[in-house]
């Protein structure tokens, strides 16, 4: 156990200065839709900082504005006109609560009304007249998942992430199928996936885990480390430059908060303070937050995702299983299910021992899961309805036969 009782040092996104960590403070909003907008004596009048780099003056190039610090990029600047900027300044959602969206921009620190279609990391335009956001800027990336439970709605997890650190520990949490899911999800959302294997200090034979992780996909770099201490800052540096947004994905307890703390250059941030007891008495991180850490990287802290399900991730699955995908194009039938069809190139390769049966099974499972979760509600209803009709018909026929 490491002990470090110094005050946690992390950029406070609301102040833009070194300050005590924002995620050690329990969130309290004075009013549901708190805004400090009106209390600001001088609004920013220099809009050049909002514009793409090429049109900026030299002065603004040198002096980084608040939104640059928040990860503002030409990709977003291209989406708004000067007129819109004067009316509706951009703000980034740095925290999502049940009661509202915490948004920060140039001289702005607001709580916007909750909205299921907006998530942490989003850039939205703030409308001072309505005290709401006027629109959400097009996202560079979006992580979503099938909402937990039986309801198959898609839930937004985080937006505008550059790199997803897919975290697992070198112990029983390590699960190739789960890593494949996360990588497919990242690739599908245009996010660079990096597998981070934690707790190497507790696993003398962690090289075995590294080897297995490396075999998963050419698209995902593998990093193994002790999440506590200096290793993360060094080993993850190439993905964590100023203005870059990164997220840690993975099960509860694998070390996501520990890694965030390590990047912040401090190990004493109380993980407890950002946790609440859930119904089963487990401690879990419950809020989604964006932290600006030392070096200028923005880190998304996302709750443990126990029920990660794929939806609309076909392209990502194709990337992770590119070899099987390629084989399937050589099957005799276009709609080959690779079960027992004649002329199936996949089954052929399996017979020859060229591909692994386990991996083939995982591929099939992910494709089936994705197809099911991606089907529209209408499609599912009609399927369910058709199924109900078939059942009724079968029962009717059975009854007839008995008569
Ligand atoms: N020895 C060792 N312990 C670690 C390492 N990474 C994390 N831990 C410990 O594992 C426990 C869980 O780590 P957290 O960082 O809270 O895990 P988390 O992924 O954020 O968990 P949730 O917030 O529930 O999603 C803590 O006690 C950490 O100190 C590591 O690399 N080595
Ligand atoms: Zn086939």
UniProtKB/TrEMBL annotation:
<feature type="binding site">
    <location>
        <begin position="198"/>
        <end position="201"/>
    </location>
    <ligand>
        <name>GTP</name>
    </ligand>
</feature>
<dbReference type="InterPro" id="IPR010914">
    <property type="entry name" value="RsgA_GTPase_dom"/>
</dbReference>
<keyword id="KW-0690">Ribosome biogenesis</keyword>
<dbReference type="Pfam" id="PF03193">
    <property type="entry name" value="RsgA_GTPase"/>
</dbReference>
<keyword id="KW-0378">Hydrolase</keyword>
<keyword id="KW-0862">Zinc</keyword>
<feature type="domain" description="CP-type G">
    <location>
        <begin position="151"/>
        <end position="308"/>
    </location>
</feature>
<dbReference type="GO" id="GO:0005525">
    <property type="term" value="F:GTP binding"/>
</dbReference>
<keyword id="KW-0963">Cytoplasm</keyword>
<keyword id="KW-0342">GTP-binding</keyword>
<feature type="binding site">
    <location>
        <position position="338"/>
    </location>
    <ligand>
        <name>Zn(2+)</name>
    </ligand>
</feature>
<keyword id="KW-0547">Nucleotide-binding</keyword>
<dbReference type="GO" id="GO:0019843">
    <property type="term" value="F:rRNA binding"/>
</dbReference>
<feature type="binding site">
    <location>
        <position position="344"/>
    </location>
    <ligand>
        <name>Zn(2+)</name>
    </ligand>
</feature>
<keyword id="KW-0694">RNA-binding</keyword>
<keyword id="KW-0699">rRNA-binding</keyword>
<feature type="binding site">
    <location>
        <position position="336"/>
    </location>
    <ligand>
        <name>Zn(2+)</name>
    </ligand>
</feature>
<dbReference type="GO" id="GO:0003924">
    <property type="term" value="F:GTPase activity"/>
</dbReference>
<feature type="binding site">
    <location>
        <position position="331"/>
    </location>
    <ligand>
        <name>Zn(2+)</name>
    </ligand>
</feature>
<dbReference type="InterPro" id="IPR030378">
    <property type="entry name" value="G_CP_dom"/>
</dbReference>
<dbReference type="InterPro" id="IPR004881">
    <property type="entry name" value="Ribosome_biogen_GTPase_RsgA"/>
</dbReference>
<comment type="function">
    <text>One of several proteins that assist in the late maturation steps of the functional core of the 30S ribosomal subunit. Helps release RbfA from mature subunits. May play a role in the assembly of ribosomal proteins into the subunit. Circularly permuted GTPase that catalyzes slow GTP hydrolysis, GTPase activity is stimulated by the 30S ribosomal subunit.</text>
</comment>
<dbReference type="GO" id="GO:0042274">
    <property type="term" value="P:ribosomal small subunit biogenesis"/>
</dbReference>
<feature type="binding site">
    <location>
        <begin position="250"/>
        <end position="258"/>
    </location>
    <ligand>
        <name>GTP</name>
    </ligand>
</feature>
<protein>
    <recommendedName>
        <fullName>Small ribosomal subunit biogenesis GTPase RsgA</fullName>
        <ecNumber>3.6.1.-</ecNumber>
    </recommendedName>
</protein>
<dbReference type="GO" id="GO:0005737">
    <property type="term" value="C:cytoplasm"/>
</dbReference>
<comment type="subunit">
    <text>Monomer. Associates with 30S ribosomal subunit, binds 16S rRNA.</text>
</comment>
<dbReference type="GO" id="GO:0046872">
    <property type="term" value="F:metal ion binding"/>
</dbReference>
<feature type="domain" description="EngC GTPase">
    <location>
        <begin position="159"/>
        <end position="306"/>
    </location>
</feature>
<dbReference type="InterPro" id="IPR027417">
    <property type="entry name" value="P-loop_NTPase"/>
</dbReference>
<comment type="similarity">
    <text>Belongs to the TRAFAC class YlqF/YawG GTPase family. RsgA subfamily.</text>
</comment>
<keyword id="KW-0479">Metal-binding</keyword>
């Amino acid at each position: 156990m490491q002990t470090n009782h110094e005050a946690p040092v992390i950029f406070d996104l609301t102040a833009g200065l070194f300050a005590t960590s924002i995620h050690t403070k329990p969130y309290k909003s004075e009013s549901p839709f708190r805004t400090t907008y009106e209390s600001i004596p001088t609004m920013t009048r220099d809009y050049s900082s909002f514009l793409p780099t090429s049109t900026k003056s030299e002065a603004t190039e040198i002096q980084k504005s608040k939104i640059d610090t928040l990860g503002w990029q030409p990709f977003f600047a291209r989406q708004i006109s000067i007129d819109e900027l004067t009316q509706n300044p951009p703000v980034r959602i740095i925290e999502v609560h049940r009661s509202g969206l915490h948004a920060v921009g140039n001289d702005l620190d607001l709580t916007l009304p909750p909205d299921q279609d907006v998530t942490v990391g989003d850039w939205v335009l703030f409308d001072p007249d309505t005290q709401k956001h006027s629109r959400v800027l097009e996202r560079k990336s979006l992580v979503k998942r099938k909402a937990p439970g039986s309801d198959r709605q898609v839930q937004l997890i985080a937006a505008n992430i550059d790199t997803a650190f897919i975290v697992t520990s070198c112990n029983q949490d390590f699960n190739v199928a789960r890593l494949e899911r996360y990588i497919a999800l990242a690739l599908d959302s245009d996010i660079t996936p990096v597998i981070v294997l934690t707790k190497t200090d507790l696993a003398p034979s962690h090289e075995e885990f590294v080897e297995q992780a490396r075999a998963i996909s050419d698209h995902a770099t593998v990093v193994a480390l002790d999440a506590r201490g200096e290793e993360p800052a060094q080993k993850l540096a190439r993905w964590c430059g100023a203005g870059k947004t990164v997220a840690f994905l993975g099960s509860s307890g694998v070390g996501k908060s520990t890694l965030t703390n390590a990047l912040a250059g401090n190990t004493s941030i109380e993980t407890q303070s950002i946790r609440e007891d859930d119904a089963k008495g487990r401690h879990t991180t419950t809020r989604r937050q964006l932290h600006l850490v030392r070096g200028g990287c923005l880190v998304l802290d996302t709750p443990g995702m126990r029920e990660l399900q794929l939806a609309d991730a076909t392209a990502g699955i194709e990337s992770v299983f590119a070899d099987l995908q390629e084989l399937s194009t050589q099957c005799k039938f276009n709609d080959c299910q690779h079960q027992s069809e004649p002329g199936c190139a996949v089954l052929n390769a399996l017979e020859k021992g060229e591909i692994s049966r386990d991996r083939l099974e995982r591929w099939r499972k992910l494709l089936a899961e994705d197809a099911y979760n991606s089907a529209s509600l209408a499609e599912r209803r009609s399927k369910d309805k058709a199924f109900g009709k078939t059942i009724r018909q079968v029962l009717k026929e059975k009854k007839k036969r008995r008569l």
